[in-house]
Amino acid sequence: MAKYIAQMIVLGGQVVGRAFARALKQEIAASQEAAKRNQNRSPGTRAATTRTGITLEEAQQILNVNSLDTEKIQKNYEHLFNVNDKSKGGSFYLQSKVFRAKERLDEEIKSKLNEISDKKVSKDKDKE
Predict the structure, then answer these.
(1) How many helices (H) and strands (E) would you count in the chain?
(2) CA–CA separation, 100 and 113 (whole Å)
(3) Cβ distance 48 to 104 under 8 Å?
(4) The whole model's pTM is what?
(5) CB 48 within 8 Å of CB 107
(6) pLDDT (0 to 100) of residue 45
(7) Which residues does 114 contact at the CB level (< 8 Å), separation at least 6?
């Protein structure tokens, strides 16, 4: 009887080990794919994604915006933040995701404005 129990434990360990190895391979592949997608972005965008832990696309999906329109972002942010207020029966987790999405979009807007101002400064220097 002990022999069969030992075999079952060994087989169970092998099954769990294979499942873990498969999951690890999938995670590595997903990580490599994300790194490839991130290579095509500007350094400012990559830094903002790393800092906030959320991609620009994910932030736009959370706040339901297609462009970096500050008014629409602010409007959607206020609505979603208030709807998910814990005192109103909302979810703190969702509220924090909304906050992080707004934070990410604000960083992207700031990055774009910095790029524009840097281009203007370099053009002005070229004219002189």
Answers:
(1) 5, 0
(2) 20
(3) yes
(4) 0.62
(5) yes
(6) 67
(7) 44
